Amino acid sequence: MHSDRSGRSGPWEQRFEDLVLGVLPQHSRHAPLDPALDLKTAGLDSMATVELLVRLEEAYGVDFPDATLSGETFATPAALWRVLTAQRADDAVTSEGEPTCAS
Amino acid sequence: MDMTAAPSPPRAASGTVHALLETAAATWPNAWAVRDRTGAWTYRQLAGHAGAFAAWLDERGVRRGERVLVRVGSRREFAAMLFGTVRHGAVFVPVNPAMRPFHLTTVAGDCDPALVIARADDPATLPGLREVTGRPVHELDAVWRGMEALRPPPDTATGREGAPVSPDDLALLIYTSGSTAAPKAVMCPHTAICFAARAIASRLRYRADDVVLTALPLTFDYGLYQIFLAALAGAEAVLTEPDHHIGLLATVREHGVTVVPVVPSLAEILLRLAGRERSAAAPPVRLFTNTGAALTSPLIAGLRRAFPGAAVAPMFGITECKRITVLEPDGDLAKPGSVGTALPGTDVAVLDDAGQPLPAGRTGQIAVRGPHVMRGYWRAPELTAARFRTDPLTGEVTLHTGDFGHLDEDGHLYFHGRRDDLFKRRGVLTGALEIEAAALDIDGVTAAAVLPPGPDADLTLFAVTELTPERVLGSLGERLEGSKVPADCRVLPALPLTPNGKTDKQRLRQMLGTSPR
Description:
The complex is a heterodimer.
Chain A lengths: L13 H10 L22 H15 L16 H15 L12
Chain B lengths: L16 H11 L4 E5 L2 E4 H17 L7 E5 L4 H12 L3 E4 L6 H11 L3 E4 L7 H8 L3 E3 H9 L21 E7 L7 E6 H15 L6 E4 L6 H13 L2 E4 L8 H8 L3 E4 L1 H12 L11 E4 L6 H10 L4 E6 L8 E2 L14 E2 L4 E5 L12 E6 L6 E2 L3 H7 E3 L6 E11 L5 E6 L3 E4 L2 E4 H9 L4 E7 L8 E6 L3 H11 L8 E4 L13 H10 L3
Parallel strand pairs in B: 1-10, 3-4, 3-5, 5-6, 9-10, 11-12, 12-13, 25-26
Antiparallel strand pairs in B: 1-2, 7-8, 8-18, 13-14, 14-15, 16-17, 17-20, 19-20, 20-21, 22-23, 24-25
Helix pairs in contact in B: 1-2, 1-3, 1-8, 2-3, 2-6, 4-5, 7-8, 10-11
């Protein structure tokens, strides 16, 4: 899925956006992803949340600590990106490829 | 009451629902009773809050027999309001915050509550709830602040005034989501609830050191009864909400959870979370129970792998009598597919179309007798008479469940499906469950649901799989006779679920209507 970069997209990598959009139901897969989108309302159910967690951990080579595994972390793309970024800093894992900056 | 009423069960093993809590508070005053995200109460504290809530209801003028509608999700105040309401002699009506306003209007009109209690963050908003229900709506946290002033001294176990609550009084109305018809409430008297809770406890044997993960909605009797089972054992119930299922396994470890009641969707979440675990230490779970929607055999095997040392106890029941059968923990190893034997002190039979008992091995309607049979449907005498049938000679009530199955020689029950899920196609009687089980046997199919042939579509399979529909139907053809192989297979990313974790077949039917392949 490729997003149109012209909108109010968040300050994240394309693959983050793709991973989030990939677990949303078809009717909510609108790029660009609004950083303040209410993911639960957009259709991110419990199972999809777990799926997203697993995909993010695999893609970024990080482990979300137990304390971050809550509804708040997965409330919006912005909240999720914040937690993910903090884990990447903590884990000090070498990034797989150059981050692509959003508009 | 104008219902077809079951004869009063014997009082011997009875008592009242609030007596369960009072006994626990006297026996294990300082043991944790109920925990939620923000904290926990001991049994003594829970009894104190329950008493304060009863006093609050009294001050609001709520009278014996009136209904109190509670829509607060899985918060520990729920347990206090449950025991406080029934101690006051009123009837507790729990509804799910996920219930849509359209549905809630019907429920509020039907149960006619004296008042409603909801959270400030209710999805329908408090003014919205006032409009939808037409009743006084109280915000949970405000109620709790108001209660503090009314709090009776600790260890006060008696009601403030009026006649004592009778074990024959109604304690609960539990609304069941009829898949097609309007919602209907099962009337649950104190005696039947206490009998059922004790009978289940005698099979499952929760212990005082158990910590019970209650991730199922408390508006679902399977979730709700965890509070009673915990109180009977002096165990702790840990309440979690669907928004935080991502943290389920973390909760299991943080609070040392030992017992986990699951429906398939919860089991899948736990397994997926266990798959990403880096910790070598096995989670402390010793028992999984299951009812509501049956675990598939791959899910059971997965739970045993991911939680070594945990037993699995399949069960079967309907809200109309709470629970019908319980299989001893790990009994599925000897009796795969069985949901167990009848609760002690109750009878289960399989009946033919004329209502006559069928011998072992023959399939028919599952029927139930015993003190756990509830009183019928609220304000629905015709429906009550049809399902809760009174013997004209003995006065004994037989609950006709509308579920089909068979018994084996040892009295073990095997569930085949709802009446709606059984159908004849090309002259062959088939159940949706049989086809779903065959689909799940195919490598690469992780979930399956079958819709019987109807006016709009032939027999249809919905599958969660990476295989092509043709491949799935081809593999089914190797497992089932031709009449049982669906005409169509639709691949979905996930099956739609009801809030209680059952496959939402109504949604599937809508998909058939709206999105032809």
